[in-house]
Amino acid sequence: METVSPALLQGSPLPRSFYARETVEVALALLGKALVREFEGRLLAGRIVEVEAYLGTQDLACHSSRGRTPRTSVMFGPPGHAYVYMIYGMYHCMNVVTEPEGSPCAVLIRALEPLAILPGSTSGPGRLCRTLSIDRSLTGHNLTSSPLTIVDLPGSPPLPPILKRPRIGVSYAGEWAEKPLRFLLEGSPFVSAP
Question: Which of 47, 104, 147, 167 could bridge 75 with an S-S bond, Cβ 3.0-4.6 Å?
Fold first, then answer.
């Protein structure tokens, strides 16, 4: 396992302008970046290897398709904030809000390649949130500041090919369930599903 220095991981977070773009563009650009969580004096981090794009009110798999609610209001706000929700009453999932304010889109972080020894698995959105101690208290958190940021990893090798697949667990969304909006790094042993 590669070890990345805390100084590098605590470098400059990605700027808000990174997130204020079309959602699929942001999803693809997030691959290879590092998600960094500071928690109880520890630095927990992993390279993003799998994401899913959610395209706003017309996307029947996107939470904002049901309109603005207290839970989804952060998606309607400015880009570069975390949207964290709970599924099955026990697992948290972390999304990154994208596009300009008023366009409620997001990218779900599905899997990480650990960049240091971590206390659990980072394969799958629920497991990575549990391992990095990400919960709903971080909904609305500004990702340009600690304790939760996304940073570039200068000097990283070129990314492997990016595969496009249908999203997972959204069969209720009709034709939107089949759209290839899940992106993963080919050959990564850390992705959440084949």
Answer: 104
